[in-house]
Q: What sequence folds into this?
């Protein structure tokens, strides 16, 4: 390991316990604002621009942003850096869509409401299967990453560290709902941004850029190539994967519904602008590994390894490991809490409503919310214990979510289209995208899925033009 | 690295022995396929952006749905 056990276990435990107590205390404090189910799930539909953009940005910064983006840069060069950064484009494009979503569903609560409204029960079920697969695999990969990072940085055993991170997030989400999630995201986003800026600035002061370029050109020339096929293909694939993730998932839809009128578009754009430079900074940090003389044996850890090196050179000492631990803990927690809240909202709100049982009565809501949040957390814990490579499931969910890009666009903006064709397109796109994933490579799967879904949706629109029976019947959300 | 099978071995500085050779097979996607996929990716991304921009411009003056 490049940076194994850089903090003593005692220090690691102290930092983890202090952070955990802080988040849970804040969760309990902010949770007092949630007086009813709408307060708990949508923070009273009153989130402003600062909290709104911070929660969007923090949720999108995951351990992948800080660990995978450097790996991309280290293995795929400049295009790898830019490819990862294109995941922010989904936030930019969702901004105008958020405006339209609020008009279509002024009292909407979940993304499931939209799919049920536009595509009926069949469409809603298809959406639910895809989104739960994707959300759960994302949640589990974050929990696994948390456990592994705590183990590598502090020596805390994997099972203990993973359990602590999940337990902390479950607790403050349980007590505070979306108020707690958004509030803690705001603080976590500031910590993440500060950490990246400090580390990036230190890397810059330790490097001579001309010398760095010369060393890369001599020792790793492929990283500077403009035509590197896998990097170029991953550019569009990651962008479309990002579109699919943001356009369909309840994590973003719930924030859209939770923000004050007119805030969501600005919040998504601001969050995208703040997020965009983070993978670029992380990638730049990784590209400096060679020029700094670091021997990288595990590309998964190149980002934190370089960060620790430059912080140590700058005289940070043990604080280097603590800073990296705090930034990574925040990036993981900010995603886990959002996933817990959004996934439990879907189950609490959508399942009884769209299966014909009606809304949960207010008197039963908090108890049901507690059961669902704890159940989701426990399920994620159970799937995280064996450390299965569920990141493979997450990557394979790319074609699944990419298949929903055009159905969302069609439902939001088009007045008429053949619903059956759109749904058939989702199934075809997801299937063929998965085949591409295993036969052509991961860097083609979301691209192929989105292309097939687009074809079906455009056909659905054209087919509806000549028919009077083609407009989808709007149903109550 | 050209397509096909390659063998690598390493030797510690100052040592006389070499490691056992490691075999690596490199295989590249045909350039035509790569270019086709790149073209497809660009088209899908542009079409997606255009659909959203067009949808936004045509719907922004519509009132809120009553429900």
A:
């Amino acid at each position: 390991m490049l940076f194994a056990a850089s903090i003593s276990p005692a220090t690691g435990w102290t930092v983890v316990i202090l952070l955990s107590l802080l988040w849970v205390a804040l969760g309990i404090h902010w949770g007092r604002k949630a007086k009813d189910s709408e307060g708990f799930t949508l923070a009273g539909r009153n989130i402003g621009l600062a909290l709104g953009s911070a929660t969007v940005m923090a949720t999108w910064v995951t351990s992948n942003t800080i660990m995978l983006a450097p790996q991309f840069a280290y293995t795929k060069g400049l295009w790898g850096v830019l490819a990862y950064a294109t995941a922010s484009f989904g936030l930019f494009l969702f901004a105008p869509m958020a405006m339209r979503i609020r008009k279509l569903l002024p009292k909407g609560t979940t993304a499931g409401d939209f799919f049920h409204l536009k595509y009926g029960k069949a469409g809603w079920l298809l959406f639910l299967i895809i989104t739960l697969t994707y959300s759960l695999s994302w949640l589990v990969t974050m929990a696994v990453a948390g456990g592994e990072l705590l183990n590598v940085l502090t020596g805390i055993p994997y099972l203990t560290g993973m359990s602590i991170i999940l337990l902390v997030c479950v607790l403050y989400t349980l007590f505070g709902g979306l108020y707690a999630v958004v509030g803690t995201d705001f603080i976590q986003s500031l910590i993440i941004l500060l950490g990246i800026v400090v580390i990036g600035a230190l890397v810059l002061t330790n490097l001579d850029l001309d010398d760095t370029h010369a060393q890369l050109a001599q020792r790793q020339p492929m990283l500077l190539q403009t035509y590197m096929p896998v990097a170029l293909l991953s550019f569009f694939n990651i962008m479309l994967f990002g579109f699919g993730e943001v356009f369909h998932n309840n994590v973003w839809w719930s924030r859209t519904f939770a923000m004050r009128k007119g805030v969501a578009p600005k919040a998504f754009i601001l969050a995208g602008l703040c997020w965009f430079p983070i993978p670029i900074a992380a990638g730049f940090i990784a590209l400096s590994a060679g020029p700094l003389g670091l021997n990288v044996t595990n590309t998964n850890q190149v980002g934190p390894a370089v960060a620790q090196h430059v912080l140590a050179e700058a005289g940070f000492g043990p604080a280097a490991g603590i800073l990296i631990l705090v930034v990574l803990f925040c990036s993981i927690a900010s995603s886990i809490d959002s996933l817990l809240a959004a996934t439990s909202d879907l189950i609490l709100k959508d399942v009884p409503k769209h299966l014909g049982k009606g809304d949960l009565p207010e008197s039963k809501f908090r108890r049901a919310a507690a059961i669902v949040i704890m159940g989701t957390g426990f399920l994620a814990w159970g799937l995280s214990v064996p450390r299965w490579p569920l990141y493979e499931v997450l990557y394979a969910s790319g074609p699944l979510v990419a298949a929903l890009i055009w159905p969302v666009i069609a439902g939001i903006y088009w007045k008429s289209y053949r619903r059956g064709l759109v749904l058939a397109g989702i199934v075809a796109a997801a299937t063929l995208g998965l085949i591409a994933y295993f036969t052509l490579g991961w860097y083609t799967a979301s691209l192929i899925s989105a292309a097939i879904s687009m074809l079906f949706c455009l056909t659905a629109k054209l087919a509806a033009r000549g028919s009077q029976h083609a407009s989808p019947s709007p149903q109550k959300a | 690295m050209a397509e096909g099978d390659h063998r690598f071995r390493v030797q510690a500085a100052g040592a006389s022995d070499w490691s056992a050779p490691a075999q690596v097979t490199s295989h590249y996607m045909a350039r035509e396929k790569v270019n086709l996929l790149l073209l497809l990716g660009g088209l899908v991304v542009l079409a997606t952006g255009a659909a959203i921009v067009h949808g936004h411009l045509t719907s922004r003056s519509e009132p809120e749905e009553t429900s």
In short: Chain A has 19 helices and no strands. The interface with chain B takes residues 93, 96-97, 99-100, 102-107, 229, 232-233, 235-237, 239-240, 243, 405-406, 409, 412-414, 440-441, 444, 447-448, 450-451, 454, 476-477 of chain A (CB under 8 Å). The CA atoms of residues 344 and 372 of chain A lie 6 Å apart.
